[in-house]
Every structure is written in structure tokens, then in C-alpha cells.
Amino acid sequence: MSHHSPRQSPRDPRSSHEPRPESGFDDRATSASIFTLATAFFIGGALTMLALGSARTARAQPAGPADGAPLMRAPLQVVAPVDLQRYVGLWHEQARLPNRFQRKCTGPVTAEYALKPDGQIEVRNRCILSDGSFDESIGAARVVPVAGQPGAGRLQVRFAPEWLSWLPAVWGEYWILKLDRDYQVALVGTPNRRFLWVLSRAPKLDAAALQAELDYARTLGFDVDQVELSGAK
């Protein structure tokens, strides 16, 4: 039996001069891979630099409302200066945003402030409960200095025991956002806009004056649609 070798296509004599790949190395495939890696590296580096540049730009810009957000979300400003000698005394609460520590208050609410010898202010809050009795909380307030605004109406209030006064967590913000020249009506809130009170010297503020305070609070970004009138439960 004869053996026949497989037929082979005739080779071009010129092909004998072409370099043969060694150990499976294909320089064309490798060049393409290097080009792909270089391109990916370049694009990745460019995207990284762009992201870092954007982050630096964002840090360099002053904080403010996001695009499309109302300008009323800008940081709140307090009244300055406030004469604490005139501000202390008895105030009647007219309206408030609901809060957990006044949820049992169904009748009139008052807040009385008195200057203490150490410069702090004694705070005495009282409200009428549903059974006709009253609930009273006694605390203290301190002035928080504001750079460039001497006498600014920015205070902090605590109702925790005095021995805990060193803890920052026991102090709540109390910002005087609006105050008439005669110290008869005050709008008080917190910088996060979660708490709001309308106070007046008179036990009952007329509806137009109260609405004016709430309208102003709305321009500051407070959700006045959730406000409840004091003693209206």
C-alpha cells in the first residue's frame, strides 16, 4: 500500500523571505492590543482629570441652592442687633410647626424669658393640657456670637439639667428671624427649618398680622402649610 502525502498549495517564492512568528508571537495582534490599552489608558486618564477638575470647581464655588431649587433655601439670616433687655419678658405663642415636645399642648402657650446675673437667660415655657392642667418646662438660653453681627439674635436653648450643659447635643437652636421695632411680634425658627414659632406680646394676634408673619416664613422656606395655631386643637 502506497502512502500519499497531503497536497500542498504551491508557495510564492517571495514568502520565504517573510519572517516567521516565533513562539506564537504575533506582532500585529500585539500592536493592536498595545494601541487598545494605550487608548483606554488615555481615555481613563482624561475622564479622571475631568472628574477631579469638576470636584475642585464644586469645592471652590460657594454653597447654595441646587439648579432649579428655589432661592428661599439659602441660609437663614437672623435679626441684628437684638436688645435682650427689651426682648425678655412674657411672649404668647400664636402658631407653630408641629413638634414632639409640644404635642400634648392643646391650649394657650407662653414663653417667659428673664436675664440672669451670669448673662444667660432663664426660659420658662408653659402650656395648657387637654385636662385643663398646665405643663411647665424651665431651661436656659445663651447667646451665640455671629462674626460681623454684634448683638445678632442667634441663641441656643437647653432644658436638660445644668450639669449636662457641657454637651453640645442638649442645646437647641433658637434664631430670631423677624422682630418688629416695638418688640411686639417675633418670628423664631431653627436653621434646618424644622421648627417655627410666631410669638406676640398680646395674648391674641389679629389674623392679618399673623398671616403676614406666616407669609414671610414661607419666603424663608418654612413649610407653613403644616403650621398649627396655638390652642386650636
How would you concisely characterize the structure shown here?
This protein has helices at residues 27-60, 84-87, 207-219; strands at residues 89-96, 109-115, 121-128, 134-143, 154-158, 172-179, 185-189, 196-200, 228-229.
Give the amount of beta strand, in percent. 15-25%
Overall tally of domains: 2
Kindly state the mean pLDDT as a whole number? 79
Structural class category: alpha+beta
Describe this protein's structure.
By secondary structure, the chain is α+β, with helices and mostly antiparallel strands. It has 2 domains: 27-60; 84-229, Lipocalin, CATH 2.40.128. It has helices spanning 27-60, 84-87, 207-219; strands at residues 89-96, 109-115, 121-128, 134-143, 154-158, 172-179, 185-189, 196-200, 228-229. An 8-stranded antiparallel beta barrel has the order 1-2-3-4-5-6-7-8. It is globular and about 35 Å long.
Structure characteristics:
single chain; about 230 residues; alpha+beta; Lipocalin; 2 domains; 8-stranded antiparallel β-barrel; 9 strands; disordered N terminus
Topology:
Layout: H1 27-60, H2 84-87, E1 89-96, E2 109-115, E3 121-128, E4 134-143, E5 154-158, E6 172-179, E7 185-189, E8 196-200, H3 207-219, E9 228-229
Antiparallel strand pairs: 1-2, 1-8, 1-9, 2-3, 3-4, 4-5, 5-6, 6-7, 7-8
